[in-house]
Model the fold of this input.
Amino acid sequence: QKEVEQNSGPLSVPEGAIASLNCTYSDRGSQSFFWYRQYSGKSPELIMSIYSNGDKEDGRFTAQLNKASQYVSLLIRDSQPSDSATYLCAVILTGGSYIPTFGRGTSLIVHP
Amino acid sequence: NAGVMQNPRHLVRRRGQEARLRCSPMKGHSHVYWYRQLPEEGLKFMVYLQKENIIDESGMPKERFSAEFPKEGPSILRIQQVVRGDSAAYFCASSPPPGDSYEQYFGPGTRLTVT
Done:
């Protein structure tokens, strides 16, 4: 049974701080990892994808992947109130049917 | 480049009626995924289709639910004889053929309310 685990939160950080969101997965063969942002009442929006160990940066967002430890993280620098949302981690086992397994999400609150 | 389109955005059905949800993938995408999300819960995979072919329907309830993606036109998720427990947000996502990219892009969703 493939599982993707996230702390449901809420994670509360002050404006301007770094928000760190974590995700662990059970399937060692997982190859593709994604972070989505979902505002309340809206659909998930793709923020980052990462396929190789290490860091990948895009603006204020950095995804970190450690396949040996089976975790993927999302760092949000200079957090803004507009970053307040639920962040979903998704994992695909390449070579299967390319269906991602989603975590239940971490709620992030950035307070002024 | 238009994104994934879903309609209707809101749908109200009485118990026992049929619900039809439509999804047009992003231009250049040939693969469609349907998900269901209950309040305060995660996204649950239902079915994965490409044109005229169901790739994986392991997440779809065996009864009352069906999906198709015809050669022409949108993908359709059909729920027959709806019950209150079917009330949820239904999201469609599309992607290019696997190998090009594994990224999925979501439509705005259809919020189904069964009264």
In short: The mean pLDDT of chain B is 94. The longest strand of chain B covers residues 43-50. The CA atoms of residues 64 and 104 of chain B lie 26 Å apart.
